[in-house]
Write a structure and sequence with these properties.
By secondary structure, the protein is an all-alpha fold. It is built from 3 helices and no strands.
Length: about 110
Amino acid sequence: MVKNLEDLQQVSKENIDMAMKSFGAVSKSAQAIVVEMTDYSKKAFEEGTAALEKLFGAKSLEKAIELQTEYAKNAYEGFVAEATKIGELYADLAKESYKPFESIMAKAK
C-alpha cells in the first residue's frame, strides 16, 4: 500500500512539473505574440497616419490615387508578412507547450 502511495505521489509530482513547464512555455510564447502584435499595431497606425497626411497634401486626383495605391500595397504586404510571423509564433507555442508531455506519450506507446 505504501509503495502504491509513493508511486502515486511521484506520478502526481511529475504531472505537476510537466504542467508547470507547459504553462511557462505558453506564458513566454504568449508574451512574445503580444509584443509582436503591439509592435505591428503601432507601426501600422504610424504608417496609416503618415499616408493620410500625404493624401491630404496631394495636389491632384492622380497623385492622391497614386498615394492611396502605394499605401494599400505596402499595408497588404506588411499584413501578410506579419500574419506569417504570428503564425510561426503560434506554431512555436504549440510545440513548446507539448514538449513536457512528450515523455508521457512515449511511455503510453
